[in-house]
Specification:
Elements (H helix, E strand, L loop, with lengths): L1 H9 L7 E5 L4 H12 L3 E6 L4 H6 L4 E4 L5 H5 L5 E6 L6 H5 L2 E9 L5 H5 L8 E3 L6 H12 L7 E6 L3 H9 L6 E5 L1
Parallel strand pairs: 1-2, 1-4, 2-3, 4-5, 5-6, 7-8
Length: 184
């Protein structure tokens, strides 16, 4: 839901437009790369060396390895972008906005610090914070994309509900390459 909102609703990515996805190997980032392709756009994905092939397999037009230097500097040659989706957090809002074409959007899903939260208050007001909020139309759109096979949800691990606290800690660790599923 969060990736769908970032790319389709808030990001308004359309056919022929490019998105830069920071944190492209994480649970939301993987889906953001795929939704960019699903709407006819393309994605440049940023991840670590160990996840380059994963992000490429999701359909990223270009994959940038952040361990080889400043990922925004590496991405600049592929821009400007209509959309920059920060799934990782920690990227300076001003640096992300500098990657945008006129009318582009900067979307953050982490918003864990006061500085990240304040990005939405900086002119020209193109930074937005997003969390998934399920509605029937959104769910129908996401289910249709998954049912068609155009978007695949990677499950990292299935755990019993009794391990919810451990799952939350793993999720906060920032090293997952898929979703954690809790079962009763």
């Amino acid at each position: 839901m969060t990736a769908y909102r970032c790319v389709v609703e808030v990001g308004r990515l359309q056919a022929g437009q490019r998105a830069l996805v920071l944190g492209a190997s994480g649970g939301v980032g993987q889906l953001a790369v795929q939704f960019a392709r699903y709407v006819g756009g393309s994605a440049v994905g940023v991840c670590s060396t160990r996840n380059v092939e994963l992000v490429r397999s999701l359909g990223a037009a270009t994959v940038i390895d952040y361990t080889k230097g400043d990922p925004l500097a590496q991405a600049r040659v592929h821009g400007p972008f209509h959309l920059v989706v920060d799934c990782a957090g920690g990227y300076a809002g001003a640096a992300c906005r500098a990657m945008l074409e006129r009318g582009g959007r900067h979307v953050m899903i982490a918003n864990e610090s006061v500085g990240e939260t304040l990005n939405v208050l900086v002119p020209p007001f193109v930074s937005k914070g997003v969390l998934g909020r399920p509605t029937r139309p959104r769910l129908e759109a996401v289910v249709a994309a998954v049912a068609s096979g155009a978007v695949k949800v990677r499950v990292e691990e299935t755990l019993p509900l009794a391990q919810a606290e451990q799952a939350l800690e793993r999720s906060r660790g920032g090293r997952l390459t898929g979703k954690l599923v809790l079962l009763p």
